[in-house]
Amino acid sequence: MEVDTSQVRAAYELILAKWPDVIEPGEKSFHIDGGCNMRKLNEIHNQIENWASESEFAPELDEIIGSLEWSVYQTVHSALKNLSILRKSDIDFEAVLSRFDGHPNYKVNPDAKN
User: Fold this and answer.
1) Half-sphere exposure of 108 toward its Cβ, with a 13 Å CA cutoff?
2) pLDDT tens digits for range 68-105
3) If DSSP codes are grouped into helix, strand and coil, which group holds residue 27?
4) Bridge partners of 22?
5) For residue range 13-34, what is the model confidence (pLDDT) as tens digits?
6) Cβ atoms < 10 Å from Cβ of 105
7) SS3 57
8) How much of the chain, in percent, has pLDDT values that exceed 70?
């Protein structure tokens, strides 16, 4: 499914509004395979994930919100592996967009206006 960048931006803004201004990972436990569990981050994410799955959105956003929410979480998680805090304002939309574009069901239309 091809998705306009403006659709992704609109969904991103809704999702980002649910994140706290300062995101803390909590206690980290690193895994042999390079993974990292962050309890406090997981608690924050669970609430946002529940909101995304239980809320109703405009049809064009409803189709992508769950996958985009996961892309935001993965971007935050990746950043917090090496940080003790992350400001919501420092989350990089382009990094989230790139992760979302890598989803097998979606292709971002780069020619769409933001």
Assistant:
1) 21
2) 999 999 999 999 999 999 999 999 999 999 999 998 89
3) coil
4) 87
5) 999 999 999 999 999 999 888 8
6) 9
7) coil
8) 96
